[in-house]
Batch of 2 targets.
Target 1
Amino acid sequence: TRVLLTGGSGFIAAHTLDLLLKHGHSVVTTVRSQEKADKIKEAYPDLGKDKLDFFIVEDIAKEDAFDKAVISNPPFEAVLHTASPFHFKITDIQKDLIDPAVTGTTGILKAIKKSAPTVKRVVVTSSFAAIINPDNGLWPEHTYSEEDFNPITQEQAMENPMSGYRASKTFAEKAAWDFVEKEKPNFTISTINPPMVFGPVVHYLNSLDNLNTSNERIRDAALGKFKDEIPYTGVHVWVDVRDVAEAHVKAMEIPEAAGKRFFVTTGYFSNREICDIIKKNFPQYKDLPSETTPGGTFPEGGMFKVNNKRSVEVLGLKFRSLEECVVDTIKSLQSVGL
Ligand code: NDP
């Protein structure tokens, strides 16, 4: 299949790109600069332009950002849209988080409808952020699934960067489903909704100081930052990046995935478990917490449950263990200087 993948320099996208190429697809990926394109190209020295090519899209928040990117020869049959800001180094929630997420999503869907009639499948990277209802807190009696949609409002979005991020993913996903309903395009969409994504970083794109947001805690644990107190875990549900990549590729390949959201999650984790896994497997990192170090456990009153059945049944996902994930993440961080 001829595929357009957006944001190819991202953590999740790099693994998705790798899997697309392994499955024999022909990929054009968008990146923000020629420098990033060159770095990715270096990792695949044997692939010709027919298998891997690049298109520069500097800012997905521009209305017409994807107008030219969706046109290709041979034409695209599928689009995987992963590019969206996921970091909290921002000054303006609307401009830095919400606009790129929403306009990026609607912009690419409009461009496909207008100029890429051969595209049949679009997979959009959404998030558990678009599922969770933060107003209900830990909600022990609830089981989250694809049925749930975060009811966050524009006003709540402006409260702090975390709300802003969650709103950006919620509004973007909603805009995608609305687009399909109203515009009745020639293609079907699927969304992939992962919670915290951990896993190996690709060495050619990262440095220890410049990691994707979700892997920072694994680095920080190994660096001894949790020695005196383990921070609160946050969402407590996770998935391995390689399983997320597989979800994207399978959602594109499997016809039954059309029109569905996929809550791709392995299940629970805690920051304490991450520390314990590092301690057990990498004795060289000395400053890890001990049994008596406070923090990092599960909430005492229990918490929401999760249902990942659809990802298993439709996409055939198996889900890697936390131990495999953390061990491989640490190994990958060692290649960038941990
Ligand atoms: P990364 O930060 O590694 O990737 C984000 C990608 O989006 C990068 O390629 C980035 O380019 C690109 N991007 C961001 N803003 C813009 C913009 N304005 N214009 C053009 N490109 C832009 O994070 P992840 O790989 O983790 O995130 C990928 C997707 O997965 C996002 O949609 C995110 O919301 C979603 N997600 C991630 C989770 C996680 O725990 N990691 C959990 C749930 C969902 P550049 O690096 O050049 O700025």
Target 2
Amino acid sequence: SDILQLISVLPKAELHLHIEGTLEPELMFELAARNNVLDKIPYESLEEVRAAYNFHSLQSFLDLYYAGCAVLITEQDFYELTWAYLERAAADKVVHTEIFFDPQTHSARGVPFATALQGITRALKNAEAKLGISSHVIMCFLRHLGPESAMATLQEALPFKEHIKGVGLDSSELGFPPSLFQEVFQLAAKEGFKAVAHAGEEGPAEYVWEAVQHLKVDRIDHGVKSIEDASLCAHLSKAQTPLTVCPLSNVKLKVYDGELVEKLQVLLKQGMCITINSDDPAYFGGYVNANYAFLAESLGLDAESIYQLHKNSFVASFLSDEVREKYI
Ligand code: ES4
Ligand code: ZN
């Protein structure tokens, strides 16, 4: 249709993408074989992997996502993982991407911070030259490991500051409110990092308030539960705090029902800065254009809304104003 055509040709920024969540089953097996760790992945075949990607909650997904990470060991592994994502992003007309990585997932397995970061940044640099994609890296703290481990990770990152644009907060949400990480985010801000946090994915609207007030984030990742709090929605609209929404992720993890999707459209029309992203595309069944297409089809979005979403992706990005201007 015309809408799908428009989605496929519009240049866009992707702002919510876990690089570890772009590990396709084929590459998972290839790296497992190369690194002699086939025993570390709980599957015998590609079919078995795909059959396992049937989630009922955030945690049921995270368990498999962390298990898959066991095959990522060398700098070259991280390079190939990131490069494979960038080629797919280019096919979807992504011209700028801000990717998350989870250093603690790798350091806990004995893979140094620098190994993961260097593999990722080498691919990003190559993509700038060969695919015309600009990028930033955002390092995320795993909230289930608590604030002390997050603080240690931040300290470990300081020597690599020039390669890291911002800090984020991800993993299991319920029981790990943003306020626990206030000190970590305070130091990160002092060190010049931008800040984002997953909030209001499975957790309540209250966690979104905490991310705004305690962590002083520049964007909220997901944030769909904000819909349940009218005064929060009013605040986010007024402050133009962006939400990086991931429709296929929310459907796969059963975060919301149809009604919430429709409310999303109301918020978009009211001027909230909503962006569309793919989160963990290898696990959730589609890259960024598939996420736009899903929303367009389920809501019957018009061309004007699609155009607004593409524009929001640049407005919400950490690009310099000078570069941003070129796209909006
Ligand atoms: C994640 Cl969908 C989602 N939510 C929270 N943490 C994550 N890490 C990777 N994907
Ligand atoms: Zn996410």
